[in-house]
Amino acid sequence: MKVPLLEIFSSVQGEGPLVGYRQLFLRLAGCNLNCRYCDTKHAVSCGKCKIEKKAGSSNFEYISTPLEIDKLLQIIQENYDLNKHHSVSITGGEPLIHYEILKILLPKIKKLTKSIFLETNGTLPGELQEVLKFIDFISMDIKLPSAAKISPCWESHRKFLRAALSREIYLYIKIVVSSNTVEEELKTACKLIKDEAPGIPLIIQPVTPHNSVKAPTTRQLLKWQEMLLDYLNDVRIIPQTHRALGLL
Fold it and tell me: Which end of the chain has fewer CB atoms within 10 angstroms, the N or the C?
């Protein structure tokens, strides 16, 4: 079986409560959504896989993709010391659209690393259930229609959250906000979290300006945080720190 891989690189986690931890990133192609602020539009297609063997070098090797699973494992073992990485991050796009591949790949990666981290848009609960036993950390998005410019995903998010909590796991939720974010949508998201998992950390992530989407003001961010603390105890504002550092 082959993996539709687009990128392999070692860097630091730039988002959420695990910011700063070293991770090996495996970016898979394809997504089931089309968010307006997406900063990885290249992840919707496949053809070449970009490999940065020396972290931060910006020197890339390009190989054809999809990759055979054994070839991917060989690349990882020959080029990266996973003992120096907090976890292997499976990201995209939306990696769970490839759950059949992940069911085979993740147990093999699990033999090489301490932990597996899943970055997901939080809309595919059934697919999550298929691979949940291999995952240690989940970064789950809740998509706001006003910011992402997509149809509401509330019920998918609710089902996904329930699926994620069916196993003891480190889970946090991230909401990307823009200057156009609607407060009622933030409240809806918070009520959903409060109903299902009130102790889960919520990260408010101001969008990095992209594709005509503007970041919220500092005043907006602080106002929203104060409002959401009426519902939840752990609400944090964390921007994309890897973008500020110029990292992958």
Answer: N
Give the count of beta carbons closer than 10 Å to the beta carbon of residue 101.
Answer: 19
Strand residue runs (E) in 54-187? 60-64, 67-68, 87-91, 116-120, 137-141, 170-177
Q: Which of 156, 165, 244 is nearest to 205 (CA)?
A: 244
Q: How many residues does the chain have?
A: 248
What are the C-alpha distances in Å from 61 to residues 9, 13, 54, 77, 128?
11, 22, 11, 16, 31
Partners of 141 in beta bridges: 174
Reported confidence tier of residue 248, pLDDT bands at 50, 70, 90: low
The predicted pLDDT at position 217 comes to 97
For the stretch 129-150, pLDDT in tens is: 999 999 999 999 999 998 888 8
Domain count, the chain: 1
| pLDDT at position 161 over 70 | yes
Residue 68, beta-bridge partner list = 2
**Residue whose tokens read 């409060």:** 194
114: domain range? 2-245
DSSP string computed for 25-66: EEEEP--S---TT-S-GGGG--SEEEEESSTT---EEEEESS
CATH number of domain containing 57? 3.20.20.70
Burial class (CB in 10 A: 0-12, 13-18, 19+), 227: middle
Three state DSSP letters for 57-91? CCCEEEEECCEEHHHHHHHHHHHCCHHHCCEEEEE
